[in-house]
């Protein structure tokens, strides 16, 4: 009995030993074949001391492609800023060159006109003259030297043109003195010496700029200065005191003379006060740029 039980037990053990171990289902979160094989081995031999599951590390740092994109964008931004700065520098340099050459061209043109107006030998406009101011002091062409001079020929009985032009002249004087004080001497020379006595001139000029200096003289002296400046002079000679039944005609220009007493430019009726001031200030700056002497002492007008 015992022997038969032993045989039965031995046969059962043999049959059990012949059975193969059950195959466990395999699963791997890894995509590579090497990780899959290692994972399967670890499932089969769980008790192997050297077996360990590979673990994927997780972190919050940006991926490499993101870092590359950020750095590339930063480089693009820096390149854009550099290009913009270079474009601004280029535009500023171009604008400066255009302004410089435009200014130089205008300055050389003014210089050419000034030299042409002087002519050869005797000047075309301007020359020696002798007049008197309203205080009775002698005033000659030598008094023009040292400053720029703005000369206007007119008469007190002029109905509308002279007052309008003297208003414009007063406005131009104020604009010039705001930017370059004491560089200009404004003069009013009468074309009607018979009626424009010193008292009449002083009263008439008091309605305009206080720096205006009135000049008068005899009929011959006034005719001579009008001739020197190419001013049309129609006042009849030999007038008796109180005789006023006559007409006076004259040229309507402002004559700009430089500190050497030379003619520079004519300013016509078509020019505004702002344009007249701009023209004179351009000549003043050209003169100062060449470092020529310029008298900046204050002056007194007939009513200052």
Describe the secondary-structure layout.
Elements: H1 2-18, H2 33-44, H3 64-118, E1 130-133, E2 138-140, E3 148-154, H4 161-179, E4 184-190, H5 198-205, E5 213-216, H6 219-228, E6 254-257, E7 263-267, H7 273-289
Parallel strand pairs: 3-4, 4-5
Antiparallel strand pairs: 1-2, 1-5, 3-6, 6-7
pLDDT averaged over residues: 79
Sheet having the most strands: 7 strands, mixed
Q: How far from one another are the termini? A: 160 Å
User: How much helicity do the residues have?
Assistant: 40-55%
- From the alpha-carbon coordinates, what is the Rg to the nearest angstrom? 52 Å
Task: Briefly summarize what is shown.
The chain has 304 residues and is α/β, with parallel strands linked by helices. Helices cover 45% and strands 11% of the residues. It has helices at 2-18, 33-44, 64-118, 161-179, 198-205, 219-228, 273-289, and strands at 130-133, 138-140, 148-154, 184-190, 213-216, 254-257, 263-267.
Q: What labels describe this entry?
A:
304 residues; alpha/beta; seven-stranded mixed β-sheet; 7 helices; rod-shaped
Can you tell me about this structure?
By secondary structure, the protein is of the alpha/beta class. The protein contains 7 helices and 7 strands. Strands 2-1-5-4-3-6-7 form a 7-stranded mixed beta sheet. Helix 4 packs across helix 7. The longest helix has 55 residues. The model has no long low-confidence stretch (mean pLDDT 79).
């Amino acid at each position: 009995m015992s022997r038969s039980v032993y045989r039965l037990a031995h046969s059962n053990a043999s049959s059990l030993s012949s059975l193969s171990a059950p195959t466990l289902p395999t699963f791997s979160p890894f995509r590579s074949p090497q990780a899959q094989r290692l994972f399967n081995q670890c499932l089969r031999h769980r008790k192997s001391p050297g077996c360990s599951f590979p673990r994927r590390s997780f972190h919050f740092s940006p991926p490499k492609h993101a870092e590359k994109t950020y750095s590339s964008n930063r480089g693009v931004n820096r390149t854009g800023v550099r290009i913009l700065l270079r474009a601004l520098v280029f535009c500023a340099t171009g604008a400066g060159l255009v302004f410089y050459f435009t200014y130089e061209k205008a300055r050389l043109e003014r210089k050419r006109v000034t030299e042409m107006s002087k002519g050869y030998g005797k000047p075309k406009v301007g020359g020696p003259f002798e007049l008197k101011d309203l205080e009775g002091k002698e005033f000659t062409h030598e008094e023009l030297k040292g400053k720029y001079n703005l000369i206007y020929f007119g008469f007190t009985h002029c109905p509308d043109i002279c007052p309008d032009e003297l208003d414009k002249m007063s406005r131009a004087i104020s604009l010039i003195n705001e930017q370059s004080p004491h560089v200009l001497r404004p003069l009013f020379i009468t074309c009607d010496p018979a009626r424009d006595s010193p008292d009449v001139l002083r009263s008439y000029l008091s309605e305009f700029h206080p720096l205006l200096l009135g000049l008068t003289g005899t009929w011959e002296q006034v005719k001579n200065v009008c001739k020197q400046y190419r001013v049309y002079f129609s006042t009849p000679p030999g007038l008796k005191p109180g005789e006023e039944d006559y007409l006076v005609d004259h040229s309507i220009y402002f004559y700009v003379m430089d500190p050497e007493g030379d003619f520079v430019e004519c300013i016509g009726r078509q020019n505004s006060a702002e344009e007249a001031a701009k023209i004179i200030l351009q000549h003043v700056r050209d003169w100062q740029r060449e470092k020529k002497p310029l008298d900046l002492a204050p002056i007194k007008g007939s009513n200052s």
